[in-house]
Structure formats: structure tokens, C-alpha cells
Amino acid sequence: MEKINGNITKNTVEYGEFKNYDGQIVTITGYVHRIREMTGFSFIIIRTTRDTVQCVYSPDFSDYRFDERITEESCVKVTGKVVSSKDAKGNDRYEIQIHDIVILSLPAEGLPIVINKKQLDNIQLNTVLDLRPVSMRNPKERAIFKLQEGIARGFREFLMSQGFTEIRSPKINYAGAEGGTNVFKLDYFGKQVYLAQSPQLYKQAMVGVFERVFEIAPVFRAEHHDTSRHLNEYTSMDFEMGFIESFEDIMNMETGALKYIMNLLKTEYKNEVDLLHADIPEINEIPVIKFMDAKELLMKKFKYQPTDMKDFDPEEEQLLGKYAKKELNSDFLFVTHYPSKKRPFYTMDDPNDPEYTLSFDLLFRGLEITSGGQRVHDYNEQVAKMIKCGMNPEEFETYLMLHKYGAPPHGGLGIGLERLTMHLLGFKNVREATMFPRDINRVTP
Predict the structure, then answer these.
(1) How confident is the model at residue 118 (pLDDT cuts 50, 70, 90)?
(2) Closest CA to 316 of 330, 335, 331
(3) Which of these, 54, 66, 120, 210, could form a disulfide with 95 (CB 3.0-4.6 Å)?
(4) How far is Cα 322 from Cα 330, in angstroms, rounded to an integer?
(5) Element containing residue 53 per DSSP (H, E)
(6) CA angle at residue 342 from 340 to 343, to 5 degrees?
(7) Cβ contact 93:87 at 8 Å
(8) d(CA 351, CA 330)
């Protein structure tokens, strides 16, 4: 009887390892990205997991004779000799002189769009999204989501280095965390339940268990928005931390996480950063401004007359972003002390001015990517605030266990992964930074 021992044998080589195999025979696997026939030889470009590798076919290299069945998007195993040279800038580059090609599979038909150029030229976004399993094969499209992996990875690695525990909260809930009407209702075996708007209630509960927790998971908002910045399902990177001195502890933790993320992208995701021409920000410190001071700044400096004194509209966020960059040399700006009427029931009011809260948003280049703040931790205070907000505390009995049986001062935040990716790459539509978008018009593919 055969047994599986978990020892993984690697029989192929990645492009990044070619420098160790110069002049040697190697094997790679991937898709035939492009075939360019020249006089007496051909270039066969192979798309591997993270790179495109130039392979050269010529009868002079070996006895292998090219199989005419091979077309673009064929899956193949290529064996050949690694040969080095210099590019125009003097950098090392490598190609493979083909000795053999083994066909692993052949496409049933040609692609509906051209993907073997640097980017998807002149293709409507809806077409790109309709053909997502194919369009993401384009190296530049693929790089978007590899970079996004780096953002989530950096968030996870940094928080774990700070003593956080990763949790998994349910996405089918008895009540919405934020309240309001923007929740998806489900028939759950005859009961009405909701898709999670956020992991808020559960990550607060877990502060009483692990003290510091985080989650990277989908959340759902039943908002009838059809804008370039809204989705009905997106990925939220959340954390919650206990025994804080003030809500500035949360802002400091996010600043540290963002520093770590950006450094990780510049080092271990340099190929994707270069391919996408990503403008990765330098973060030393992030300036902070209070909500009402920001409103006054908008009115005085930009002569902008706000229509809503409880929140910012997109144009106000953009103006604040320009101010932060020009006057403070920062791509980021924390705005604190939002009005109590605009923040959820679990947000702690400022004891010095209860009309405002110990909360904040983080703007990145003029777009809000984070909401966070300190939470109410006293049981009686939380119940009183629920009643003030027109809520029935009895419906949140399990949530209030944290408060009833002792909760430390705590707080946290949520970062929209797709929004952060979108703005990092200078996209105009958040769907470009979403692998399979879900909005009011799209539930496929």
C-alpha cells in the first residue's frame, strides 16, 4: 500500500530562480502566452504563476520539433537551457532555449478577448468583468490581485506581531451591527436573519477573550448605490483591541500596520508595483484634524459651503486630501470626533462634549478607507445609548454579555480592502480592484 508523507518535491523552476541555473537545463510549466514566429526560429512566451518567460524555439537547439497543435493558452511543460543576457539598462535577463515541450492541455477554442498585451486595451469594464476568469490572465490584471494579497498579508503579519489573534465571525446574524435599513434579509428556516454588515459585535465580544483580535472577511451592505466607490459585498480588514488608553491607540496601530503594508509591497511585491506603476506612499506620521475643524477649513480655505454638517461628501474628502498632500505632505489624513448622531450605537461619546464621539475616519488621497473609534464598554451606558437610538437592548442580549460581565476600554476599525487597492493604483472604479464584484446589477460570474 502506498502512503502519502507530505514531502513536497518541486520539479520545476520559477523565473526568479533562473540566476542560479544559468547554463543549466530546467523545466517550467505554464500557459503559452504568445507565439512570435521569426525567420528560422520562434519566441514562445510562457506565462507562469507570477512571470512571463521568454523561450526560444529553433531546430538548432535540440532534436525537438515544434508541435503545430500548440496554440496560445495551451498548458505546457517546457524543458530547456537557461541563457542569460543584459537588457538595455544593463540588468540581467534570462530566456530558455527549448529542448522539449509537453502538452498538458489544449484550449477548446480561442479567447474572446486579447490578453497577451501589457494591458487590456480599449475593452469596456463590463466586458472585463463579464470575462473575469479569462481577463485576469492578463499579467497586469493578475498583478492587481497579487498586490491585493500583499495588502491583506501585511495587515495580518503586522497585527500578529502585535499580539493579535485572528478570528472567524458568522456572516448570518440575528441583527445588524450598524442598524438602519441597509441589511440583506434572509429567510432562515422560517426566521428572518441578516447578512453581516460587519463583524463588529463579534470582534467586541472576542476582546473579552483574546484582548486583541482581527479578521479579514466579506461584509454585506444592501445599499442601492451604483457609484464607482460602492459595492454590496466587499472585503473588510477589521481589528479590535482592549485595554486602550484612548482612541489614539487605535490610530497608532493602524499607522503602524499601513507602514508595514507599504514596505512589504515595495520589497516582496516589487514586480507587481513596477508592472502597475503603483504609487506606494511613504508614511512617517499621519496628521490629525477634528471633524468641525475640517469643516471650518473647507469653508475658509476652499470657500466650500457644506450641505451636511454631520458627514463629508466626496468633494469635501477630495479637498481635504489635496490639503493634506500640499500643506502637510501626507497622502493620509485622520479626521476625528465625528458627530454622535452620525456614528453607530456602540461608539463612545466624547465625555468633554457628548455631541461628538471618540471616533475617526482615515482619508487616503481624498477617499475614506477606514472608520474606527473607541467603543462604549460600560453596561449601563451602552444600554442607555441603545434606548436613546431607538433600539431594544433585549434583542442584543448576547452582544451585551461583554458589557454585563466586564469589558475593558476598547476600540477598533475596519479598512475596505478594495477601496484601498483602488486608490493605491489610481483606479477610478472600485470594481477594477475587485476580483468578482457584487453590486446592484452584478451577481455573475
Answers:
(1) confident
(2) 335
(3) 54
(4) 9
(5) strand 52-57
(6) 70
(7) yes
(8) 30
pLDDT in tens, 166-189: 999 999 998 766 666 689 999 999
Cα(330)–Cα(338) distance, integer angstroms: 21
> Count of CB atoms within 10 A of residue 284's CB?
8
Averaged pLDDT, 91-99:
94
- 238/216 Cα distance (integer angstroms): 6
Q: What is the DSSP string of 181-205?
A: S---EEEETTEEEEE-S-SHHHHHH
**In 3D, which of 350, 354, 398 has the Cα closest to residue 374?**
350
Cα distances (Å, whole numbers) of residue 336 to 100, 247, 275, 288, 370:
63, 10, 36, 7, 12
Among residues 146, 293, 312, 117, which one has the least CA distance to residue 229? 312
CA distance 166 to 158: 12
Is the pLDDT at 226 greater than 90? The verdict is no
pTM (global) more than 0.90? yes
Angstrom CA distances, 405 to 208, 219, 380, 398, stand at 9, 28, 12, 11
Say how far apart CA 135 and CA 112 lie, in whole Å: 9
**CA-CA distance, 411 to 247, in Å (whole number)?**
7
The x, y and z cell numbers of residue 265, run together, are 509591497
Helix residue spans in 190-313 (DSSP H): 200-210, 248-268, 270-276, 291-301
Over the stretch 76-94, which tens digit does the pLDDT of each residue have? 999 999 999 988 888 899 9
Backbone phi, then psi, for 114, in 5-degree steps?
A: -85, 120
How many residues comprise the chain? 445
User: Rounded distance, CA 183 to CA 117, Å?
Assistant: 41
